[in-house]
Amino acid sequence: MNYNTQKEKLLMPEYGRSVQEMIEYAVSIPDREERQRCAESIFSIMVNMQPQLRELPDYKHRIWDHIAYISGYRLDIDYPCQITPLGESAQKPEPLPYPMKEIQQRQYGYLIEESLRQLAEMPEGEERDALLALTANQMKQSLFTWNRDAMDDEKVAADIAHYTHGKVQLDLSEFHFAPVQTLPRQDGSSKRKRKKI
Questions:
Q1: Which residues are CB-contacts of 173 (< 8 A; sequence separation ≥ 6)?
Q2: pTM attached to this predicted model
């Protein structure tokens, strides 16, 4: 018995082993005209196998690139378009640099810490009070999301004072937090199920 693991590796599994074998057969045809007709037939089969590619403006070019790639760029025919060389098609893009920001407390994240830095520099007034309310409510929501045991109004007030070096104080006797939003579970409930002992 001949297993697939013993056969040659599929270069493009989405087309299957039959297409790869047809392309290998086309490479072995000695007559150039017959080889050209065979390649065009394979092209039609591949288009029918991947009909979603027709929605792309350059789908024909892609299919011919796939044929050339599967053949190992050994298929000697008159391609109707310029084939992408092996080096360009196999080249991986450079990884994008990720901006690393130092965060003191990960449960709050960089944006909350940036808001607190801005609060420390703002003069007293309605605008600062509005930003303070938004920031404090988001901090409590973040604590609820990441560490419910540490979700405490006093902790939020203490963290605001810490981040702003005491310049901004949250007066808990006057400030009322918005209700914490809980995400519904798949069964529609928002409560956590307790394990039975």
A1: none
A2: 0.46
